[in-house]
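User: Predict structure, ligand thiamine diphosphate.
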Amino acid sequence: MDHIDIKDLLWMYRAMKKSRYFEERIEKAYLEGKQPIFNIGAGAIPGEMHLSNGQEPSAAGIIVHLTNNDTVTATHRPHHEAIAKGVDLKKMAAEIYGKKTGLSKGKGGHMHLFDPNVKFSCGGIVGAGIPHAVGAALANKKKETTDIAVAFIGEGAANSGAFHESLNLAALWNLPFILVVEDNSWGISVAQKASTSIPSNDLRASSYGIKGYLVNDNDPIEMYKVSKEAVARARKGKGPSIIEIKTYRFLGHFQGDPELYRNKEEVPSLRAKDPINRLKEYLLKEDLSTTEEIKTLENEIYTEVDSAFEFAIQSEYPKPEEALEDVFY
Amino acid sequence: METTKDKIKKLTGSKAMIQALDQEMDRDDSIFVMGEDVGKYGGIFGSTTGLFDKYGGERIMDTPISETGFIGAAVGAAAEGLRPIVELMFVDFHGVVMDQIYNHIAKIPYMSGGNVKLPIVLLTAVGGGYSDAAQHSQTLYASFGHLPGLKVVAPTFPNDIKGMLIAAIRDDNPVIFMFHKTLQGLGWMDQIDASLGPVPEETYTIPLNKANVVKTGKDVTIVGVQMMTVKALEAAKELTDLGIDAEVIDLRSIKPIDKETILKSVEKTGRLVVVDEDYYSYGITAEISAIVASEGFHHLKAPVVRIATPDVPIPYSRVMEKFVIPDVKDIVDTVKNMLIV
Ligand SMILES: Cc1ncc(C[n+]2csc(CCOP(=O)(O)OP(=O)(O)O)c2C)c(N)n1
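Assistant: Predicted complex:
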C-alpha cells in the first residue's frame, strides 16, 4: 500500500497549487468594491466567502484516487475539493461572480456549486452533505459498480446529528463511502477542544465498526497513502472509513472575520509549514521532479486560472427575471 | 435630578439587544445564553458582544454545532426552572432542529395541559439583500407563525428590539425572537438609518402582541415587517410628493398577530397593501389579506395587494436577488396603481 506513484504526487501538486492560486485571486477580487469600508454585500463578489487556503492536502490527497464517476460532497468551504474533482473552472469562477455562464447560472454562488458532470456538490448547511454522499454510495452499491462516494466536512460538523446517523447507515449497509474530516482547529470561533469530547474523529469509527485513519500535521503524502487504502477498501466492498486530517486554516472563517478569538502567532506558524511548499520540497529532494518541471506546471496553472477569471469577468449577468426560472422543470 | 430624556441614548439594533440581555441577566440568575459563537465572538450578528466578558462561560455558553442537542436541551433546562436563551445564527439553519421546535417547544406546554412551562427564547437572524444566497437569506416568518404554541416576534427599530426582547425573556411561553441582519447596525453590512435609534436606558417592556402605526395617513394602509417596514416608510415619503397620504404599520409581532390595529387602519383608509420579505404563498401577506377580507371587507375600496418574495429560493446573483426581494419602487408603483387611475 505504501507505493507512491510519482504521477500522483505531481497531480496533487497541480491540484493544490491551482486551488491556492484560484483562491488568492478570489481573495483579491472579493475586496474589490469593499474598500475602504468593508460591506459584505458590495463589490464584484458579494456575500460570504469561505476560503480553504492551507487545507489543500485534505482534498488532493484523496481525490487523486478518485475518478469522474466517484461522488464528492463538500461544504461551505468547497473550492479545494471542487478544483481537485475537476469541476469546470471557468463555470465555477463565473458562478462565484454571479454570472449567467456560471455552473448554476448565478443562482448558487460560492457555497452552492453543482457540477453533475464530475459528480460534485456542496452546500451551506453544516453536516448536510454527509447523507447525500451516503445516498450516492447506496446507489453505487445497488447498481453494482465499483464507484465510491466521499463526503468532506469540517471537524465542527462531526458533532451534528447528520454525522452520526449517516455513519451508522453507511456502516450498517456496508457502503462504499468515505468521510473526510478536515480538522482545521476551528468551527468559526469555537476551538476543536471546546466543541468535541474526543481529540480526533477517527476514534469515532470504532463506534460504527468501521475503519478510522488519522493524518497528522496536514501531511499531503500521508493523506495520499491513507486515502489510497481507504479508497481501495471501499471499491472492494470492504466498507466505509473515516479519515481525519489535522489541517490548517490560514485565513478567517470567512473573509472579513476579525479573528479576535485566535492567537496572533497561530497563522504565521502554520504558514511556515505550508503544505504546498512541503510537497514541492519533497518532490525536489526525492528527485521526483525538477525545478523546471514545476515551473512549467505552475505557469500552466496560472494561465488556466487567469483565463477562468477572464471568462467570469467578461461574462454577462443573468437577466433579473431569470430568477423565476428553474424552480420546477 | 436627571430627566428621562437624559437617559435615552441612540443605539444600534445590536446594542439594543445586548442591553436587554445584559439587564435581564443581571436581574435574574436563572437566565443563561447558549449558541454557536455567542461567547468570545459575541454572536455573528453582534447579539451578545461583551456579555462573555461580563458573565463568563457558565452563562454565555458556546455550543458545538449540535442544534438538536442544545435546542432540545433548552426544553429540559426550562422545565427545570431555568430560562434559557438559545441563539441559532441564521433562521435558515432551523431545518436541522425543527422537530424540537414544532413538536416539542411549541407543543409541550399544551400537551401537558399547561402543567409544563417552557420559558425559552430562541434568537435568530433573518433576511437577505447581501447575496448570501438560498440557504442564508430567508426570513421564514410564516413558517414559524404557522405553528400553534410559539410566539413569533420580529421587531424593526432599536427601541422595540430592546423592549420586545425583555418582554420575550420574561414571558413564560416559548418565543422566537427574529432580528434582521440589516437592522443590527453592523459595521460590515449596509448602513441604514433605521438601524440606529433612541433607546431608553432603563428596563422596559413592549408587548408581544401589538403592531405599531409608525406613520399615520388616510389614503392607504401599508403593513410591513422589519426591512419591509423600513421600505414602506421610504415609499410613504415618496408617495407624499405625489399627494398620497399612506399609513404605515410595523407588524412587530407575527404571532399573535394584532388584527385590531390593522382593521382599524383599513377602516380609515379603505385600501391595504401588505409587504413581506418572506415567500408569497401561505405567508404574512396571505394571512393579513384573509383577516381583512373576512373581518373588514366592507371597508375596502379596492382589492388588497400582496407584495412578497415570489415562490423561488433566494438567488445568489445580485441582479436576481434584487428582483425577487420587494423594494421601495414596488411599493410606490403598487400604491400609485391603486390610487391614480
Ligand atoms: C446547521 C448549521 N449550523 C450552523 C451553521 C453556521 N456555520 C457555518 S460554518 C460553521 C462552522 C463550521 O465548522 P467546521 O465544520 O469545522 O468547518 P470549517 O468552517 O472549519 O471549515 C458554522 C457554525 C450552518 N451553516 N449550518
